[in-house]
Amino acid sequence: MSSTAKADILARLRQRTHTSPPPERDFSVLEARQWTPAERIERFRQHLESVQGEVIRTTESELNQAILDRLSRSHVRRLLLGRNSPFQAGLAAAKSGDLELHVYDQPIETWQSELFNEIEAALTTTLGGIAETGSLILWPTPDEPRLMSLVPPMHLAVLRVDQLHDTLLQVVREQRWSQGMPTNALLISGPSKTADIEQTLVFGAHGPRELVVFLVDESGSGA
Amino acid sequence: MTDTHGAVPFHPNVRTALDNPQIRGNFRRAMDGLMDKRRLAFDDWELDKLRTLGSAVRLNALHHLPELLEQLDTRCRANGIQVHWARDGDEACALITDICRRRNARSVIKGKSMVSEEMELNHHLEQADIEALESDLGEYIVQMAEETPSHIIMPAIHKNTREISDLMHDKTGTEPSLDARYLTASARAQLRERFMNADVGISGVNFAVADSGTLCLVENEGNGRLTTTVPPCHIAVTGIEKVVPSLDDVAPLLALLTRSATGQPITTYFNMISGPRQPDEQDGPEEVHLVLVDNGRSEVYQDEELAETLKCIRCGACMNHCPVYTRVGGHAYGTTYPGPIGKILMPQLMGLDQTPDFPSASSLCGACGEVCPVRIPIPQLLVRLRQESVDGDSLHPAHVKGHGVKRGRLEPWIWRGWAWMHRSPALYRLGTALAARFRRLTPSRLGGWTDYRRAPRPAATTLHQAIKARRTHRRPS
């Protein structure tokens, strides 16, 4: 049945006669959107903050402390990390006694209720950011699964300034996304939100209520 | 609303909507806000160039539609996504019901999908004893109220906070409150359980990318991501026109879509799905299905001019800017897609005989065409459909389903006489002179025209006479 439907639909579409070729696609209007590194940081920050995202500028050496400080400010006690997380050793060494570090190292089916009901925050890496829209790029992996950036009420993400790009088009082209995509890829631009009740903007719809980005600047010009 | 046998009762619906100050107020406020937000969102853009690119991207995709669909099919299968094709809504519903049955699914959680509204999927699932729950907040509200969406982006825009509070109180026991944050939190809590226990998640698709086999979803709430990630099976359903060649093409469309729809530079989540969970992954659905639905689109595709309708990326900007939509709201149209895009799409999908009032429910002010991010010439298509409604003339043969629905017996003869008179100067002079002489005898009731206006009356002097008199007057004697 299904293969007949496919044949029928394609045959009908192929009956169309085209009188002229389609117009050229001129991408220059997108390609022209470029910024200096300083402008990129500013633009990223402004856009993310305009949708209640939080940007904390820090350096590599101060990153762990910045994360711990931010967690303690929100009284987070159960933090989720990815498997083989680059932050685990540092956080474990520097953390105070009442912060529990959980690692996402089992299939979701075995601990779904705990993830949905008990984990208060998750910390992930990112593949980069997009200055134009204030977006984080995440490619979830077996080590850092999809639900980390979605289910806990707070999502913390680490972004290095040299991975801040101008536009989505630039990223797609430079990183050759068409050559192969992961099972799931995401752009995340702020905490989850809705305006479905009489246009009133509310943060924390079904995803995290808070998104905190640690923008790591190796040159030390941050903070 | 619509009834499968008779035409959409548009005029009675409009009357009801216009008499409801609540509805008019809700839409006026919302649409004013959305128009402002859109304008600001394009402030630092060369908008004309971006719209030209958006249009070119969509035209290129449509030009190669059959090849792109085959490529999408091949790439998705290679990625482990199961691809199904459906000629119409019923076939798509049957396919989806079968997938659910095979998995012994009792409960389905849904992300927002207009094509699933178009094919009345929830109703079909219900008949198969499968419970389908909408998870987008607006859709959740509309489903609780047993209504249909009144806007394609903001389904519950016709309701104000008090109505939503009353509804949630009645249906879920939520404490009455005028605080949108409280109501949203309550819906979040109720839906969390449902996400965890759902057997299948069903979503729409904003863009289907052929060369990488990627399904792109645009959303703010996170319900779309939960729908496509938590249940063990994800079924994505989309119209066949949503395919684009590559992710490069997605960039301009995404830039246009969110800014045109709600004035946001981007939505919170842009979710790109290219396959089911792999053996080493800890989460994600074990099965991903893609259902490609034709449901009349391949017919729309046949005519070069009308096929522009298929460029639509469903942003809703045309309705936000439409003086008719803003006054009557989405329900008056009685069809899945309301507003200007609905007025050109629904007659082509359902037939002009089912939607006879749609092409003329417009002042042709042109706002919809001016804001359309992919430059669909909506006013021009409305005129084309008006011609189709009266079977046009020999130069423009009509072929949209249900064409000629408005062609009367008398009117073609009147126009034939009109054309004849205008080809002969003597007859024209005689005709206008007679009209001026007997102007008081013209009828004062002219059907629908005089419901809201006075009948036009010929002037006492003809234009020729007036100009002649003016020349005589001006000439120095």
From TrEMBL, chain A:
Domain LUD: start-end pairs: 41-216
A UniProt-annotated Pfam family: LUD_dom
Region (Disordered): 1-25
Record-given protein name: LUD domain-containing protein
Organism: Saccharospirillum salsuginis
The organism's taxonomic lineage, starting at the top: Bacteria, Pseudomonadati, Pseudomonadota, Gammaproteobacteria, Oceanospirillales
Automatic annotation (TrEMBL), chain B:
PROSITE patterns: 4FE4S_FER_1, 4FE4S_FER_2
Top-rank taxon: Bacteria
Alphabetized UniProt keyword annotations: 4Fe-4S, Electron transport, Iron, Iron-sulfur, Metal-binding, Repeat, Transport
Alphabetical GO biological process terms: lactate metabolic process
UniProt KW Coiled coil keyword: no
Domain 4Fe-4S ferredoxin-type, residue spans: 302-332
Keyword Cell membrane part of the UniProt annotation: no
InterPro entries documented for this protein: 4Fe4S_Fe-S-bd, 4Fe4S_Fe_S_CS, FTHF_cligase-like_sf, Helical_ferredxn, LUD_dom, LutB/LldF, LutB_C, NagB/RpiA_transferase-like
Alphabetized Pfam families for the sequence: Fer4_8, LUD_dom, LutB_C
Example GO molecular function: 4 iron, 4 sulfur cluster binding
SUPFAM superfamilies cross-referenced by the UniProt entry: alpha-helical ferredoxin, NagB/RpiA/CoA transferase-like
Protein name: Iron-sulfur cluster-binding protein
Organism: Saccharospirillum salsuginis
